[in-house]
Design a protein that fits this description.
The chain has three helices and six strands. It is of the alpha+beta class. The chain is globular, with a radius of gyration of 20 Å. The relative contact order is 0.18. It binds 3'-uridinemonophosphate.
């Protein structure tokens, strides 16, 4: 049987092929966000914690200057990308409705080559993130929660 493959049909098939790739890409950026910025059950939240987790999450070659870890439930962070726990903030960012326990690790200075030494700051903050396709992909900043 001779199949006549119209160009439209070929484009459709190519689209189907690329779809899983595009979906995997979304997931990849979200997983990267979690690696960089999520720690469900932190131990200590002190300078030693920062020294350890910054290296453990691959943020020390070179030493990243500032990095925030969000604690608590993953679903509450994901929900910032929806109305459930977030609202638009500026151009294309979103601010959380609820506050989170966060630990910000700040490089103490000097050489940016390992070993990297950090100063930890614990806080309870609303957070500003970037979302892509309904998933968090970028941590922007955090604020003291507005008083109710
Ligand atoms: N950053 C934090 N917490 C802050 C401020 C900045 O983690 O409070 P990225 O890899 O570009 O997403 O702004 C520069 C970098 O510092 C950003 O990292 C941001 O996540 C991080």
């Amino acid at each position: 049987m001779v199949m006549v493959l119209s160009p439209l049909f070929l484009v459709f098939m190519l689209g189907l092929d690329l779809l899983p790739l595009a979906l995997a890409q979304d997931d990849y950026r979200y997983r990267h966000f979690l690696t960089q910025h999520y720690d469900a059950k932190p131990k200590g939240r002190d300078d030693k914690y920062c020294d350890y987790i910054m290296q453990n999450r691959g943020l020390t070659s070179p030493c990243k200057d500032t990095n925030t870890f969000i604690h608590g439930k993953k679903n509450d962070i994901k929900a910032i990308c929806e109305d459930r726990n977030g609202e638009p903030y500026g151009g294309n960012l979103r601010i959380s409705k609820s506050a989170f326990q966060v630990t910000t690790c700040k490089h103490r200075g000097g050489s940016s080559r390992p070993p990297c030494r950090y100063r930890a700051t614990k806080a309870y903050r609303v957070i500003v993130i970037g979302c892509e396709n309904g998933l968090p992909v970028h941590f922007d900043e955090s604020f003291i929660p507005p008083s109710q």
